[in-house]
Amino acid sequence: MAEIAIDQSRLPRVQEVCRGFALLEDGALAHSLQEQEIEQHYASNVQKSQLVRQDVRVAKILQDQEERQARSHSREEQSREEQDSQYARAVQEEIHSRATERHRREEEDKEIARRLQEEEELRRREEEGQEDALPPAAEEVHSELGAGR
């Protein structure tokens, strides 16, 4: 084999070569770290975006639930108010009906008392022998009561 002659005067020293490799390694490491940082930042942004989208979905669901509950509560409240109103009307009608019935009975009682008084007057006159002097209303009561016996 033939030996090749190398001019050693032009070759860089070992320290210079090591320094060059160290610079290249540092540059490669810096570039690699920078790419990792960019990827982590990008991944973090993607994760944050996903969380925001998920939070928006959850917030929308919660808002829909709250709106449904509010509508349901409103309907229940309106229904209670209508029931209360109907109950109040029924109570008012019952009070009015009882008052009307009480007034009717009072009038009947007055009429019965008047007729009884006239009948008593008629009996008293009959006992005294004054049957011919009966007022017309007393004769009517007397005939009604006499017919009912």
TrEMBL record:
Protein name as it appears in the record: Coiled-coil domain-containing protein
Record flagged with keyword Coiled coil: yes
Pfam families in alphabetical order: CCDC50_N (PF15295)
Coiled-coil intervals, chain numbering: none
InterPro entries: CCDC50 (IPR039303), CCDC50_N (IPR029311)
Domain Coiled-coil: 5-125
Key words of the record: Coiled coil
Protein's UniProt keywords contain Coiled coil: yes
Region feature (Disordered): 63-149
Bias-annotated ranges (Basic and acidic residues): 63-83, 91-127
